[in-house]
Design a protein that fits this description.
- A 6-stranded mixed sheet has the order 2-3-1-4-11-5, with helices on both faces.
- It is 36% helix and 32% strand.
- 34% of the residues are buried.
- The protein is built from 9 helices and 11 strands.
- By secondary structure, it is an alpha/beta fold.
- The two termini are 32 Å apart.
- It is elongated, with a radius of gyration of 19 Å.
- The protein binds 1-O-pyrophosphono-5-O-phosphono-alpha-D-ribofuranose.
- 1-O-pyrophosphono-5-O-phosphono-alpha-D-ribofuranose (PRP) binds next to strand 9 and helix 7.
């Protein structure tokens, strides 16, 4: 049978997943020596996997459409884009949280004017404010969202916060950070999970075992 394909979110989650796969017995030399290659075979001796490197939202697209059996993606991306796939394991790394943040010392909730929120996560932001019964205007930003309130484009941002240093170094502060806890998740295509149940369950069990040791 052809090797399982697992799409990894390039960057930090990729590195942590590769570490986990190495401790689970996979030789990941091909990933370390990848150059500009995007599909990389790894092997544990018994089983082979093809690693596919993609942007977070694309990991979901490839898994949903069945061209990758599995994927590793942050819960933030799942909450923003998630449609139909199984979320089979919380990998424990990539921990951060969603937060509403604004300029230090400014009372976000004062006044009756409609507030403008800048974010990379418009769906998460809409749901969050719907829960509060608040009408807001959302402006989609692709990165470094912290710029928006500093430049006067928005009253606040909804973004992921890990250490809090980006906010602090830019004179911003958390208004609320109970929006949602985030970490990396292993997701599976629904058909793959039926057709290749044993292989997927074995790999997920190995990953879970190694995660517990870390
Ligand atoms: C994320 C996030 C914040 C920062 C938070 O950005 O959007 O800017 O990390 O981390 P901290 O709380 O530890 O400072 P990322 O590095 O993914 O870059 P981007 O915003 O340009 O996409």
């Amino acid at each position: 049978m052809k090797p399982l394909r697992i799409a990894l979110t390039k960057g930090r989650l990729e590195k942590d997943t590769v570490k986990l796969l190495e401790s689970a017995g996979y030789d990941c030399t091909a990933v370390h020596e990848k150059g500009r290659r995007l599909i990389l075979p790894i092997s544990s001796g018994e089983s082979e996997i093809n690693i596919v490197l993609a942007k977070a939202a694309d990991v979901i697209t490839y898994v949903e459409n069945g061209v990758c059996d599995l994927g590793v993606v942050g819960k933030d991306t799942i909450m923003e884009n998630g449609r139909s796939f199984y979320e089979i394991l919380d990998l424990g790394f990539g921990k951060c949280r969603f937060a509403l943040a604004g300029k230090k010392g400014k009372d976000f909730y004062s006044g009756y004017n409609e507030k403008t929120i800048a974010t990379k996560y418009p769906n998460v932001t809409r749901t969050f404010f719907e829960g509060k019964g608040m009408d807001i205007r959302i402006i989609k930003i692709e990165g470094s969202v912290e710029l928006a309130p500093l430049l006067g484009l928005s009253d606040a941002i909804v973004d992921i916060v890990e250490t809090g240093s980006t906010l602090k170094e830019n004179g911003l502060e958390i208004i609320e950070d109970n929006v949602a806890p985030i970490s990396a998740r292993l997701i599976a295509n629904t058909a793959s999970l039926k057709l290749r149940k044993n292989e997927i369950e074995q790999l997920a069990a190995k990953m879970e075992e190694e995660r517990a040791k870390q």
